[in-house]
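Teaching soon. Got one?

===
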Amino acid sequence: MITGTVLQIVDGEVYVNVGYKSDGVIPKGEFSSDPEVNVNELVKEGDSIDVEVVKVNDGEGNVLLSRRNVEGKKLWDDMLKEDIVGKVFESVCKEVVKGGIVVDINGIRAFIPASQAAVRYVENLSTFVGKEMKVKILEVDTERKRIVASAKQAILEERAAAKKAKWDALVVGSKVMGTVRRITDFGAFVDIGGIDGLVHVTDAAWGRVKHPSDVLSVGQKIEVLILNVDPEKERISLGYKQLQPKPWTLAAEKYPIGTIVEGKVVRVVPFGAFVALEPTIDGLVHISQVSARRIEKVEDAIKVGDVIRCKVLEVNVEAKRISLSRKDVLLEENPDLVAELEAEKAERERLYQERKAAREAQREQQRQGSERNKERSERAPRTERSNVERRENSSRPDRRRRSEDADYELPPIETTTTSLKDLFANYKPEEE
């Protein structure tokens, strides 16, 4: 290394007096390792400059000089003052060589094997030329002044540091935005800034959900609540339903009385049918409101799986009950059916009035017959009634006499004693 004086600057080339018979020249590419540097901003005529002689004669009678090599040696010495293995530096890819690429680290060339150029395999390494890269120093050979670096390790370390920072920033109970990346039978995985958390199927909605895809879809952006964080197992539990209003709190607003709703029959019971208005809210259609005509069973009009239209009759948020009517919708949407039902009602009323008149006529006939019988009984001869009275009176003393006769005393009964001896006293057996 020698020191010279700048004589002039022509088209980016610096002419320097180094005490040789011929002036020295620093080509534009040998002035600095930074190709974008502006020579006129760094030196001017009369400045002292440290250079290295590359060739005594460049073919044109000039001494070929290099400031870049001097700069590189200084950088190398400065770099080796401390252990740089494992440290990360900014660099610029210069060229593609056999087995990898060469990068410039503050004027020092370093080699990056092809396997360490990126996290994933890259077939065309020329795509890196001219690009800035963060590299990690893997090996330093001071004798050969050779450095082996890795862009892959630098990227992985940067990702790990960013990931750790994100894990440290996660707070249970906080709200974060995320994107649904994958859906399984047991839940949905949501990306919340480079980290995937799980929304379990039980935390996808307030009601029972058969599959998470019934509520969420891939690519959907949602706000979730952090329920639990396990950095060791790298697991995050997220909740989606916790940030959604409970369905029944909005039921009165969503289903005003008198509105027409559409739902699927999910269950049939003897007293009616339950209709799903949404995954967490069912309404009841009472059997009296299932059909415009009277039916014996709900199944006579609808069955499970049918999609029906109903009118909202009542909404009880506290009891979580919605009353629906299919009959009202049928009557409103079918004027012909209304006319037919009115005709049937009129016919039933006519028959009822006829039966009522017949019953009243029968009762009047019975009343008149009773009155005639009463009049005949009043016109009967008095003698007949007297005889009847005498017969009744004559039977009464007899009953008294029989009662009096029962009070007589029975004569005493003599007691006798008879024995076998007395019976056989006069018996004489016959002689043969």
